[in-house]
Amino acid sequence: MFKKFDEKEDVTGATQLKSSVQKGIRKKLIENYPYLEPHLEEILPKKENFKVIKCKDHIELLADHLGVDKGAIKFILNGSSIMCPGLTSPGAKLTPQVPKDTVVAVMAEGKEHALAIGLMSMSSEEIQSINKGNGIESLHYLNDGLWHLAEKPLN
C-alpha cells in the first residue's frame, strides 16, 4: 500500500513549467475530463506555477505546495498543527485561493521535500487576514507512525 519514496532512486528531475505548457496541460485535462472544468481552477489555479517531477518508470507528478518558515520545522516534526504565523512570515509561502478542507503538502523554507501532509483548517485568505490559530491540521509528517509502518515489509 505504501512505498518509501527516495529522491536519489525514484526522482530523475524536476522542472518549472512555462505558462504556455501549463495552459496546454489545463486544456488537455478539460478535453479528457470535461466534467472537471468547473473545478479546474481549484485544482490548478492559473495564478500559481507548478513543477513537473519526473520519476522512474515514466511517472510524472504535478506539484504545488504551501511552505512554512524555518522556525516551524521542529514543531511540525513533533506532530503539531501548522499555525497561521508560520504560513505568513517572510520565509513562508502561502498559495492564494486554497479553500478550507483542502489536503496540501507542506514544504519548509530552505528544504527541497515536503515534511508534512495536512488539511487546511481555514482558507488561505482567512489564514492571511486572521494570522493566528491553527492554519493546517497535520495529518502525516516525517517519522510519524505511518512513516515507520511504511518501512516495515508487508507479509
Automatic annotation (TrEMBL):
UniProt GO molecular function: RNA binding
Keywords carried by this UniProt record: Cytoplasm
PROSITE patterns reported for this sequence: PUA (PS50890)
GO CC terms of this entry: cytoplasm
CDD domains attached to this UniProt entry: MCT1_N, PUA_MCTS-1-like
Regions crossing the membrane: none
Domain PUA as annotated: residue spans: 64-143
Superkingdom of origin: Eukaryota
GO biological process: formation of translation preinitiation complex
Record keyword Cytoplasm present: yes
Subcellular location field: Cytoplasm
InterPro entries in the cross-refs: MCT-1/Tma20, Pre-PUA, PUA, PUA-like_sf, Uncharacterised_CHP00451
Pfam families associated with the record: Pre-PUA, PUA
UniProt record similarity statement: Belongs to the MCTS1 family.
NCBIfam families documented for this protein: unchar_dom_2
PANTHER family: MALIGNANT T-CELL-AMPLIFIED SEQUENCE 1, MCT-1 PROTEIN
Protein name: PUA domain-containing protein
Organism name: Caenorhabditis nigoni
